[in-house]
From TrEMBL:
GO terms for molecular function: RNA binding. This is PORR domain-containing protein. Residues 57-393 form the PORR domain. Pfam families: PORR (PF11955).
């Protein structure tokens, strides 16, 4: 009987040990003090792996920009499609599929039905054209294009001045052209029109756009122009004790080599981070318009200069944004960082990389206040005016619906 009781006691202890091991609780014998058990359990519950540091913070206001641009982009695309038809030839609804594909045809037909203040469907077979009011507004685009021409010429020159050899593949210009506001026939209406500034020559089997005349007055970045406009006064005394300088909680520093930053709402920098970031803000760096071959790629000043190049490229676009693929197209010509996306995420106070939309997009943060773009160019002002016609109209929707159903 005693042997049986001993085996039972041993089995009970073994079961208790195995259950503690399964629960990851340290095995404590009964003769240890109670305070030791409590302290051990507390140490176990408060220990473990440290949570991963969050390196990506969403900016909902800029994500919202991508959502708000979906409908205007489709409206403007349909406007361009109607205007691109040969003279006196209307756009028949049956030809939509040929121009935009079977799937997108239904999106455009729904858009036509939803916005009778802009588009009107008449005739048999049905054709789509502008309403009288939309036609009057559409005529203002020519004026906006005239105002845009000197802006586009200067932006093209600045873009070429950022490249190490003042040249860039023509296909890259075509790739980023819509973001810069270039017309589809920019080669004929801009490049050929200004032979004193631009030329197209073959190099290594590819057509390149060359800069013919360096303009020193344009070698001023948007960051430098903003600082000059704000009248930033920098204390340049060498004996200033940096520890006595008040650290701004938002990371901004009034200096000639500082970037305007806007940290995400979920980012909480500590004092150590702000001190290091302020030293980085004060770090001088060469102008993005100087040739990148002159500098050592491993130098911190050169790495900061690369951020200045990205900042300037985004500043040359109409909406201060570009897809990551478009930005990467400048990699070889502008000596951009090898790990470009990681660099953008690291400097999330200056840039914002969002995956909203069909492609990932890079925003320049200081170009926006919330979801609103700062300083719209004449072409964007025209686009906003045209899209603003999307109000409720007095057109009979039944007529449009019956015409659309006839096409289907």
């Amino acid at each position: 009987m005693g042997f049986h009781n001993t085996n039972s006691k041993t089995r009970a202890q073994t079961h208790s040990l195995s259950s503690m091991l399964r629960r990851n609780v340290p095995f404590i014998t009964s003769n240890q003090p109670r305070i030791t058990i409590i302290s051990t359990l507390r140490q176990k519950s408060s220990g473990g792996r440290r949570p991963k540091k969050k390196t990506y913070h969403r900016v909902l206001e800029l994500d919202r920009v991508m959502e708000l641009r979906k409908k205007p982009t489709t409206i403007l695309e349909l406007k361009t499609l109607i205007q691109s038809q040969p003279k006196n030839n209307p756009l028949f609804l049956r030809d939509l599929e040929k121009n935009v594909g079977f799937v997108r045809k239904w999106d455009f037909m729904a858009l036509i039905e939803k916005h009778p203040t802009i588009f009107r469907v008449t005739g048999s077979p049905p054709l789509v054209h502008f309403t009288d009011k939309a036609q009057r507004v559409a005529h203002e685009e020519a004026r906006a294009r005239i105002l845009m021409e000197p802006i586009l010429v200067n932006n093209l020159k600045k873009m070429l001045m950022l490249c190490v050899d003042c040249r860039i593949p023509l296909e890259t210009v075509e790739f980023v052209g819509p973001e810069m506001g270039l017309p589809c026939d920019f080669k004929g209406c801009l490049i050929d029109k200004y032979p004193q500034f631009f030329s197209v020559r073959a190099f290594n089997g590819r057509d390149y756009l060359y800069l013919e005349d360096w303009d020193s007055t344009l070698a001023v970045t948007a960051r430098e122009a903003r600082l000059a406009q704000e009248g930033v006064v920098v204390n340049m005394k060498p004996n200033v004790d940096e520890k006595k300088v008040k650290i701004s909680r938002d990371g901004n520093y009034a200096g000639p080599f500082a970037f305007k930053v806007n940290f995400p709402a979920g980012f909480r920098p500590n004092v150590n981070f702000l001190e290091q970031f302020e030293r980085w803000q004060k770090l001088e760096f060469p102008s993005p318009y100087l040739n990148a071959r002159r500098f050592d790629a491993a130098d911190p000043k050169t790495r900061k200069r690369a951020l200045g190049v990205i900042h300037e490229l985004l500043s040359l676009t109409m909406e201060r944004r570009m897809t990551s693929a478009q930005l990467d197209a400048f990699h070889a010509e502008c000596f951009l960082p090898s790990q470009l996306l990681l660099c953008l995420i690291k400097h999330h106070g200056i840039f914002y990389l969002t995956n909203k939309g069909v492609r990932s997009t890079v925003f320049l943060k200081d170009g926006y206040v919330g979801s609103n773009l700062i300083g719209k160019c004449p072409l964007l002002q025209f686009n906003d005016k045209f899209v603003a016609l999307c109000g409720r109209g007095n057109v009979d929707l039944c007529e449009i619906k019956s015409s659309l159903q006839a096409v289907v």
